[in-house]
Amino acid sequence: MTTYHISLESDVLKVKFGKPANGDQVIPDAAIRLDEMVVSGELSGGKLLKIDGPASIAVSYLIAHKISQLYAAIAVFDPKIGRPGYKTFITAISQTLAYKIGELIETDEPHKSKPILKVVLCGPPQSGKSCLREGLKQAISQIEGAAYPYVITACPDGEGAWFSDAARRDLDLARRLKDEYKAKFTPQFAQKAASWVRSANTLFSSPKRLTSTFPTSLYTLYP
Asked: What CA–CA distance (Å, rounded) separates 163 from 155?
């Protein structure tokens, strides 16, 4: 089973992640599939190609490198823009006057908006919030088909899941970074952290093995 799936449906390139793997495996798998599609003529070029589905930054660069010269314009699906309830694509590559960079291409293909559930982990100091959050993040990252879990850590006191990993590599550096970062909670910081959570709309898909049925973003708040 490949780590990255790519298929062509009419003028839309459908992409999605497959089995869990690091980028050094995902990129070669995606490259092999794109080369197969080009050689077979499935990706033969044309006026416009629309891309729909999740892709890492590295995969996006790879796709652009492999096929940008085949199409006059390439547009990418953006769920945050366009008519509510329908898919809208934004032109990211254009070598023709027919499409401008940044131009929106609205379609009649339905797109159902997903509710956003924001999970907040909170509790007293040294109660294991960072460890729980990091454990959830790592567990979700290992589940096939789950998108990257987006996390906001609202703690100005230097605590966080990063410390233990950094300390294993260089204890002195980890302590120095923690001391440099350490600050007190203020009303201004609390308001800023609250605004981060309010404005966040990045989702991760809830896999079947989790109890939640909604896309979720994960936050850790420290009292």
From this structure: 13
